[in-house]
Design brief:
This protein is an alpha/beta fold. The chain contains 16 helices and 10 strands. Helices cover 48% and strands 12% of the residues. It is globular, with a radius of gyration of 23 Å. The protein binds 5-phosphoarabinonic acid. 5-phosphoarabinonic acid binds next to loops.
């Protein structure tokens, strides 16, 4: 197994080894609670064994539905919000070409998203696009009652039925929801849509390895078996290795909690490639919803280097000292692009031509680490060998496991999200929903 490595060398000036060793018993106790299922939120631990327990028959059916959708669609509309779309989106955006929208290969649909916004212009533009595309829809809601995807689905379903007729529309919709309850479950049952279940014991932000993530990812043409294998192999490390030194998820949980206890307020996930932007969005939900409660928790934020060094770099270097960085480094790019030599060297960059772009980016990352550490920002590094289905599967499990351990170390229930309900009550009241 190619490893995910957590490097603490640029943290030790801020949290020394003795402090990391001192928190280890709390982290190990948190891990035991997670594995024994004897702490708050234990009804939502289904994700822990998910890579082992995915039903083979369900996966075969899912792959067949994904292939059927792919064969008849140039676009797939994924309708969902929060944990019901971010997992699929982070995997697809990490693996597809940045320019996939312009270079569609005809074999797999390009994925667009809905239900994650109520912006009216967005839907007007989407419907405009759908007028001229062969498309299918994957509608995802665990509760089956979330307003944003419900409104989006109603709009898109009406468009789909008008375009193809009701029978063909029902062949182009797949629903992923609760096994028994919710409006989406009832619609899917009555309309005869293929349906997949989100297990009761898997919360939205931990659901990427259920049909919630797997169906859109498979339909977009990516290898879900490799994704699951990566998660499976990382699960073994997380479950079998009992020390911080051997278990990267425990080390990550330990370092962020030591720094939090010492006054750090913000954790910036720093991606070194643009295609990891949605990984950061998924991570923000995972850690923000899991830890941000009871007046506690690191605020998850993200930047991409070197892009955001030209916007946020100033603040990170010299603004208020409240943050740590977790830099996600990728050892090898998928492809190479040489920097050409130019005899006239008018731009003065011939000195770079012996280096690959990755080497240049690595120097930027190393230079950034040195600068930020000097500016008072601890930088934890997480290194993956490359970005593909297998390593993303590893990262998913790594971040999920570390999140559960970290939340229990922090002293919160990492598996609920009571605060998300507050805005909904106000919104329903303002909209005049019966009972509000
Ligand atoms: O993590 C969570 O539970 C939430 O972010 C949900 O995923 C999000 O609110 C969407 O909920 P649902 O899938 O019920 O529509």
């Amino acid at each position: 197994m190619e490893k995910i490595i957590v490097k603490t060398s640029h943290v030790l000036g801020f949290a020394n080894q003795a402090e990391i060793d001192a928190i280890a018993p709390d982290v190990m106790a948190a891990r035991e609670h997670l594995l024994r299922g004897d702490a708050a939120g234990s009804d939502f631990l289904g994700w822990v064994d998910l890579p082992e327990q995915l039903d083979g028959e369900m996966l075969s059916r899912l792959k067949a539905d994904a292939a059927r959708i792919a064969a008849k669609s140039s676009l797939l509309v994924v309708v969902g919000i929060g944990g019901s779309y971010l997992g699929a989106r982070m995997v697809i955006e990490a693996l597809q070409s940045e320019f996939a929208a312009f270079r569609r290969n005809g074999t797999h649909p390009y994925v667009v998203y809905a239900g994650h916004t109520l912006g009216e212009d967005y839907y007007a533009q989407l419907l405009d696009l759908l007028d001229n595309e062969d498309y299918s829809v994957c509608v995802i809601s665990k509760s089956g009652t979330t307003t944003e995807p419900a409104v989006a689905f109603r709009i898109i379903k009406a468009h789909l039925e008008k375009k193809y007729g009701r029978d063909e529309a029902s062949q182009r919709i797949v629903a992923i929801t609760d096994a028994r309850r919710g409006a989406l479950h009832d619609i899917a049952a009555q309309e005869g849509y293929p349906m997949y279940v989100i297990p009761d014991n898997v919360g939205g932000r931990f659901s990427v390895l259920t049909p919630v993530g797997l169906l859109p990812i498979a339909a977009a043409g990516f290898d879900i078996d490799r994704l699951i294998q990566g998660a499976h192999d990382m699960r073994r490390v997380c479950l079998d290795k009992n020390s911080l030194a051997e278990n990267p998820a425990l080390m990550y949980a330990a370092v962020r909690n030591v720094l939090y206890r010492k006054g750090t307020k913000v954790e910036m996930l720093v991606g070194c490639q643009l295609n990891l932007r949605y990984l950061a969005e998924w991570w923000k939900q995972l850690y923000g919803e899991s830890e941000g409660k009871d007046g506690r928790g690191l605020l998850p934020h993200s930047i991409t280097i070197t892009t955001d060094l030209h916007s946020m770099g100033q603040y990170v270097q010299q603004g208020e000292r409240l943050m740590m960085e977790t830099m996600l480094r990728v050892a090898k790019p998928a492809q190479h692009v040489p920097v050409p030599t130019d005899e006239r060297n008018l731009d003065g960059i011939n000195y770079l031509t012996s280096k690959s772009l990755t080497e240049i980016n690595d120097c930027a990352a190393d230079g950034t680490i040195a600068a930020h550490v000097e500016g008072g920002v601890p930088v934890l590094q997480i290194e993956v060998p490359r970005i593909d289905e297998y390593t993303i599967g590893q990262l998913i499990y790594f971040f999920e496991f570390a999140c559960g351990v970290s939340g229990y170390t922090l002293g919160v229930n990492p598996f609920d999200q009571p605060g998300v309900e507050f805005y909904k009550k106000n919104m329903f009241h303002l909209l005049g929903k019966p009972g509000f």
